[in-house]
Amino acid sequence: MIKVSLISLGCAKNLVDSEIMVGHLHQAGMQVISDAAKAEVVIVNTCSFIDSSKEESISHILEVHQNRGMTKRRKEQKLIVAGCMAQRFSKDLSTSLHDEVDAFIGLDQVTKVAPIIESLFASERAKNAAPLSFIEGKSTYIPDYDTPRFRLTPKHFAYIKIAEGCNHPCTFCIIPQIRGRHRSRTVASVVAEARQLVKEGVKELNLISQDTTFFGMDTWDQRPNPRTPVDSTRGTALTTLLRQLNVIEGDFWIRLLYTHPAHWSDELIRTIAECPKVARYIDIPLQHISDRMLGLMQRETSGTYIRDLLQRIRTGIPGIAIRTTFIVGFPGETEADVDELCQFIKETRFERLGVFKYSQEDGTRAAKMNDQITPKQKDARWHRTMALQRDIAHEVSKGYVGRKLRVLVDEPGVARGEADAPDIDGRVYVPITLPPGSFASVRITGYEDYDLLALPVGQMPSTRKVAKQAQ
User: Fold this and answer.
1) How far apart are CA 314 and CA 311, in angstroms?
2) In angstroms, rounded to a whole number, what is the distance separating the alpha carbons of residues 143 and 137?
3) pTM given for the model
4) Pair type for strands 414-417 and 428-429
5) What is 323-370 written as a DSSP string?
6) What is the CATH number of domain 157-398?
7) Contact by Cβ (8 Å): 81, 97
8) pLDDT along the chain (471 residues), means of 10
9) 404-469, superfamily in CATH?
């Protein structure tokens, strides 16, 4: 039995790819272990979205290779590089990592990983031979509900990839070149997977893709230009999906991640409001608010459109928590653009917000633009926007004190509310052991930065603790 260890890097979408690989390895009778030192094969599922993710991927690859020289047994260990970086740079990496890597596999080989491993052991690699590459053209694969998969998340939450690829023309992004054109699963396929996960005890279904709001739109033959914002009154496959997921029997949350602002509609807002199992939380990366910057980024939206959309969302879905991300330091960004962004953040008061420093990615149109911003300027703008958001987050957290909140327990003493997605948002700390994977009702007693402090409903803290936590 071949022992395989897998290192998964990057986003939740990459994690699903890792889960599919592990599922196929198990199906082939291979043993997946966490200890790379005892494995005969190590797979590094890489990310290459921005420079820091590429550096992390290279670091893990080199670490695995260096550790192979520690014992005779590990010298025979095979190293496979998978994922976005392999898909994007396999030709270049074959030269730069000539001696370190045995094979590169891309996004469409996640279901073929077992026979690829068997082929590596079937023939000896010739001395000085280049690593094998199993990558064939642009990615076209899309998982289905019956795809063998072994979840790497805790038992109580899961990610469901409802689509793959992206059709958006954002000038800073390389993802469409890596993962190909947008291609949606069917509503029936996603619902079947969700039903099975709920049967297995999953309490939170996180819907993901490069753009979840574009789900099903790639099949609209009558749409003359799929890049224009949708008719705000029209229903979409996503609204159909949410309504069908909402009627599945069981007690669970449905969380909507990675929504593009150009494809929101009034029907989607209404659907979320009318579906109690859909978490009062949305993830909607806006990237900027300045019309000039949105134009340079080719974000297909305007500042006026964004402001109006957010107002409609907050009016139509009472209690909604909005998470967004912005990019600072994009080529040509001026201090006036940053001033407008900061004013917008102050006015809108996002419940959750992250800021990225622009990364000059080879192969993107933005990388060739004039007026690139210096690293020092990027750092200053990042610190300015994040400091502003820290003050807002402090006020948002303070507003929770005294409120009753339904939370999902992740581990003893640690839970999350509807406003907190796994791994990216805050936590709710409860100093009482509650069963992991269960829902609980708590009362918020205090906060620390982005996290909340709580006690089960009906239990009161001491006077001294209340004074300290509410400071």
Assistant:
1) 5
2) 18
3) 0.92
4) antiparallel
5) EEEEEES-TT--HHHHHHHHHHHHHH--SEEEEEE----TTSSGGG-S
6) 3.80.30.20
7) yes
8) 96 96 98 94 92 90 85 77 93 87 95 96 84 91 93 97 96 94 96 97 98 92 47 70 98 97 96 98 98 98 98 98 98 98 98 96 95 98 97 96 97 96 96 93 94 88 46 43
9) Nucleic acid-binding proteins (2.40.50.140)
